[in-house]
Amino acid sequence: MGTIAVVGATGTIGSRVVSALAAAGEEVRAIARRPAGAGEHVQVHVADLTDADAAIAALDGASAVYRLSCSFRDHWFWLSSGQIRA
Q1: What is the predicted pLDDT for the residue at 86?
Q2: How many Å is the maximal CA-CA distance in the chain?
Q3: Sequence-ordered strand ranges (E) for 1-86
Q4: H or E stretch covering 20
């Protein structure tokens, strides 16, 4: 399937999603503001969704994204800009 990015990977739900995907043998990219608790055997990217450049870099090349972070409606403007390559 390729790399699966999990935004909010260190939260209550995100950490469980990361663990389940990794246990299933998926290639996981954990994306969070604070990497502690992101899990083992996963790629970890530190990014804050209010920083468009960091978020785009963290998502670049992912084949799927689980967005489990808080609602940042005003900060996801860059998601529809075509700057992310899958």
Answers
A1: 47
A2: 34
A3: 3-7, 27-32, 43-46, 64-67
A4: helix 12-23
